[in-house]
Design brief:
With 1012 residues, the protein is of the alpha/beta class. The protein contains 22 helices and 15 strands. Helix 10 packs antiparallel against helix 16 (669-738) and helix 13 (456-493) runs antiparallel to helix 14.
Length: 1012
């Protein structure tokens, strides 16, 4: 992960929105975030972890959202951009708001995640950063962002916890194969059981059984062939007899139909004649009678319409006469309305005049009262002005006695710096004395052991060499004594006639005489033990004094550094004393300055009090001026209003035409208004009545003319249709005589017959065709029967025999099919049995192999082994830096329990627990492991650059260790690795190429300031 951008608003001490551009910081390779304790430095890390994982180290309570929000903020918002896996850019956001009505209530936090593609923010379905970073929140805090107090957690984890962490960081899950093997083993055992059961079920299916079934099948097929041949011959005879029997039955059926057709032949002939007559009458008379009937119906309807139109016209004429009489009466009143309308307008103007006269009187009274109030306010303004002038004079006198504030600040800063220089001098002297005392104590240790602090190593090495020479001499002498003792053993065992074990001779004329050297060997052994103890003591002294000398060198270096610092402070102090130029005070005693400062404070308080009183009086004066302006504005407004009203009064008086205003001065306005309402109602009613009657007269005139025209038209149509009816009746009578019909009634009866001509003619045609077909078919069937020479009486006997043979055949077919099914089933089951046996053998072998693998992977043993290998690799990488930081004195290792230990080269290369390290050494080990972890996990995220944060920890290091650490951190930039440091130690800023500073403002909260 590589951070790009972070914005924080409303989180803890961050009241307003603050932004951090990490691109310029990470470009430096090593950067820092500095600020005083409590300024909000660690909140930067907490904002990042909450945006990514919705989790923090500081708060995880139910009321976390409320407690995280700044008390002066109404919303909390975090936005974090970074480069994740495959070098893609991601953005994570978190926000929530405070309830506007309940201060203690906040909304549920909302988290969103985005990925940038082609410059666009595309929302992600999941806000789980673990999917993007490939690391959990807990391990993120161990390897990427290490919060305050957790930097050493990786070292202090138990073996099992550290293995679990390694399992997650390096994706070792794919090595945890125990459960997969167990599942496969269980699955294989189940298959073996199933196959074993299936094989037992198929035991009856053998090759011998199948061969017997095939032989039986061949015999049954031969029998079936004979029966099938007999069945075919009988079936052929039976079918021939059936055909002849069907011919006899068909002849009988045809004769029966032919007899019915002969019986219906007369009816068909009568129907043909009836249709011919109907078609003749229909052709001559049908349409004439239809036209006559239609015209008669039209004549009846016209007669009815004419009578109704005449009656309607008479009613309209009567109504028109009455409406004309009413219109004449209303017209007399309508002509007098203009005079009545002028009277209404005059009354309206009189009402306006009376109201305006009342408003003029009211405004006159208000003007008089306002002038009284205005005079009173102007007097108060004059009194306030006199008081203000008195206070201004008093303030002027006080300011003349004031001392410049910049002088006060300069002198106060001088005393503050002087006190700090004195304190620094005292602290350095105290620390210098302690270092010198420690140096003397170490030198005394050399003297106590009789060693010179400069030549001790040479003396001890020489002593160790001498002791080694003595040990070699003792060893040579001891070897000689041992040889002599062994020869004595051989000589005592020699016997004449037996071969010597050394030379093989059987003759021993001069047997060697030897002395007993056992006591001498014991003496040599005691001397060797004593010498070895002395050598070990010398070696221990060397190792001890190597550490002592290292401490002595460090102390001497620190003494020189402190002496240099003390000299600088003394120089600064003298330069600072030279800047003291104020004769009224002494540089080493600020008592007089404090008294003077108190006097200045008293003057400032008096000035402030007078200024406040002056401001109060000026505010009161402004209020009075505002009141005066308000009164003036109101008076001017009233005067202007009065003038406007008088102008309107004059206009209304000029509009009066008929009435006299004085006649209505004493009348109430309501009476005048009622009179106006009544007059308007009379005018409106008269106008509406006149218009309504006029419209009615016009409408009735139009309606009377319309009715008259319609009546005349109907009478004319009726005359024409009656003439047409007479002509049609004459034409019908002529045709009746011409075609010999007695009357029109006779013709109408013929036409009234309900005949469906098409249907009846089709029926006649079908009868004639059927008659001819049946007659021809009878002749053909009789000829066919005569040609067939069979005895129909044999059909019953042959049918019975055929049925018996068919039953025998079907029985044989059923038996044969059953036998075929048995053969196929047996063959299939036997093949299945063979296949199952092969699978059983394979599964049995697989089960044995899986049992071996299960024992190998049982109890996470394989994963723990892989985890141990990864930890050992981490140690190798970490030791490249750790040994350099500890000057080769210490080295990290992993013990059998997967716990960290250190090899102490100052104590014979023995191992001890990592928890025995000092605070500074522990920080060094943690830093080296964190760098190793970051380097090892770099490839997992597929990032070109890797990054991690360190929060505090440098205060435990001495100057030389800090130099080594920073040299290491700076070298990481060349390896595409970036480190961020959070610290309150301002001196570290000089060592870091890029940094920002967190400043806590009393009013604005935490602010981010970029250092230049």
């Amino acid at each position: 992960m590589l951070p790009l951008y972070l914005s924080i608003e409303g989180l803890y001490s961050y009241q307003t929105k603050q932004e951090i551009d990490f691109t310029s910081l990470t470009a430096a390779g090593l950067f820092g975030i500095f600020g005083k304790v409590g300024s909000g430095k660690s909140t930067v890390l907490e904002a990042i972890t909450f945006a990514l994982f919705a989790n923090t180290n500081r708060l995880n309570t139910n009321n976390r959202a409320y407690n995280m929000m700044n008390l002066n903020s109404n919303q909390l918002r975090i936005e974090f951009h970074f480069i994740g896996k495959e070098n893609k850019k991601y953005a994570f956001e978190a926000s929530w708001r405070r309830n506007s009505k309940q201060f203690e209530k906040v909304t549920t936090p909302i988290r969103k995640a985005y990925v940038f593609e082609n410059g666009e923010k595309i929302p992600l379905e999941s806000t789980d950063a673990e999917e993007i970073l490939g690391i959990s929140y807990k391990n993120f805090n161990r390897t990427v962002i290490v919060p305050q107090g957790q930097f050493k957690e990786f070292l202090e984890l138990k073996g099992a916890e550290r293995s679990a962490m390694m399992k997650e960081l390096f994706n070792l899950d794919h090595y945890d194969l125990f459960y997969k093997v167990a599942s496969l083993n269980k699955e294989t055992d189940l298959k073996i059981q199933n196959i074993s059961g299936a094989v037992q079920i198929l035991d009856e299916y053998t090759a011998e059984n199948i061969e017997g079934l095939v032989t039986q099948l061949s015999k049954e097929e031969s029998t079936l062939a004979l029966v099938s041949k007999k069945h075919a011959n009988l079936d052929q005879q039976y079918q021939k007899l059936l055909e002849v029997q069907l011919l006899y039955r068909e002849i009988a059926s045809k004769k029966e139909i032919f007899a019915k057709l002969n019986a219906n032949q007369d009816n068909i002939a009568t129907l043909k004649r009836q249709i011919q007559v109907f078609r003749h009458v229909e052709r001559i008379f049908k349409y004439l009678f239809e036209d006559l009937r239609k015209d008669q119906q039209v004549a009846i309807q016209l007669q009815t319409d004419t009578e109704h139109a005449q009656k309607q016209m008479d009613g309209v004429s009567t109504k028109l006469l009455i409406t004309n009489q009413e219109l004449t009466k209303t017209e007399l009143l309508y002509n007098k309305l203009d005079s009545r309308k002028i009277e209404v307008e005059d009354l309206k103007n009189i009402i306006q005049i009376l109201q305006l006269q009342h408003d003029i009187a009211s405004d006159t009274e208000r003007i008089a009262k306002g002038q009284v109030h205005l005079h009173s306010v102007e007097k108060e303004i004059a009194d306030k002005l006199a008081l203000i002038q008195d206070r201004q004079f008093e303030l002027k006198q006080l300011k003349l006695s004031r001392i410049p504030s910049d002088l006060l600040i300069v002198i106060n800063d001088w005393y503050s710096k002087q006190e700090q220089l004195v304190k620094n001098q005292r602290d350095i002297k105290l620390e210098l004395t302690g270092k010198q005392t420690d140096t003397q104590t170490i030198l005394q240790q050399f003297l106590t052991q009789g060693l010179d602090s400069k030549t001790w190593l040479e003396n001890l090495s020489q002593k160790e060499t001498l002791l080694s020479i003595e040990l070699e001499k003792l060893q040579i002498e001891a070897n000689k004594a041992l040889v002599q003792q062994q020869l004595a053993t051989y000589t005592h065992a020699l016997t004449n006639g037996q071969a010597c074990p050394l030379c093989g001779s059987e003759q021993h004329p001069h047997i060697m005489q030897t002395e007993d050297v056992s006591m001498h060997l014991d003496s040599l052994k005691s001397q060797k033990v004593a010498l070895l103890a002395e050598v070990q003591l010398v070696q221990q002294q060397k190792q001890y004094f190597i550490q002592v000398e290292t401490n002595l060198i460090s102390l001497k270096k620190d003494v020189k550094t402190l002496q240099a610092k003390l000299q600088i402070i003394l120089t600064d102090q003298q330069a600072h004393l030279n800047q003291f130029i104020w004769e009224d005070f002494t540089p080493h005693d600020r008592t007089a300055f404090e008294k003077w400062k108190l006097q200045v404070s008293e003057i400032e308080k008096k000035c402030t009090a007078v200024e406040e009183k002056l401001t109060e009086l000026q505010n009161e004066q402004e209020i009075l001026k505002g009141k005066r302006d308000k009164y003036n504005n109101v008076l001017n407004s009233i005067i202007l209003s009065k003038s406007t009203i008088e102008g309107r009064l004059t206009s209304h008086l000029q509009l009066i035409k008929q009435l006299n205003v004085s006649d209505y001065q004493q009348l109430p306005l309501s009476d005048i208004e009622n009179r106006i309402v009544q007059s308007i109602k009379f005018i409106n009613d008269t106008e509406q009545s006149y218009k309504k009657l006029s419209d009615e007269v016009n409408r009735l005139n139009v309606e009377e003319a319309t009715c008259s025209t319609a009546t005349k038209s109907l009478k004319l149509q009726l005359s024409g249709i009656l003439l047409q009816i007479d002509n049609q009746q004459k034409q019908i009578n002529d045709l009746l005589k011409q075609h010999n019909y007695s009357s029109a009634v006779e013709v109408q009866q013929i036409l009234a017959q309900q005949l469906d001509l098409d249907k009846e003619e089709t029926r006649i045609k079908q009868f004639e065709e059927q008659y001819a077909i049946i007659q021809a078919a009878l002749l053909q069937l009789e000829e066919k029967v005569q040609q067939e020479a069979v005895d129909i009486s044999q059909i019953t006997a042959i049918s019975l025999e055929l049925q018996q043979v068919k039953q025998d055949k079907e029985k044989l077919i059923g038996q044969l099919q059953s036998l075929k099914d048995q053969v196929l089933t047996a063959q299939k089951k036997y093949a299945e049995k063979l296949q199952l046996q092969v699978e059983f053998d394979k599964l049995n072998l697989r089960s044995k192999n899986l049992n071996v693998l299960s024992n190998l992977f049982k109890g996470n043993g394989f994963v723990d082994y892989i985890s141990t290998q990864y930890l050992e690799d981490l140690c190798l990488i970490a030791n490249q830096r750790f040994e350099r930081l500890t000057r080769g004195h210490l080295k990290l290792m992993i013990n059998a329990d997967n716990d960290f230990e250190v090899i102490d080269h100052l104590n014979g290369g023995k191992s001890r627990s990592v928890r025995t390290l000092s605070g500074g050494q522990f920080f060094q080990a943690s830093l080296c492991l964190a760098l190793a972890l970051a380097e090892s996990t770099r490839s997992l995220n597929k990032n070109e650059k890797n990054f991690f944060f360190i929060d505090e920890g440098f205060g435990t290091q001495d100057t030389e260790s800090v130099n080594l650490i920073f040299e290491t951190l700076n070298s990481l930039h060349k390896e595409n690795r970036i480190v961020g440091i959070i610290s309150h130690v301002d001196e570290l800023q000089e060592r870091i190429p890029a940094s920002i500073k967190i400043v806590k403002d009393e009013h604005q909260g935490s602010l981010v300031v970029r250092n230049h």
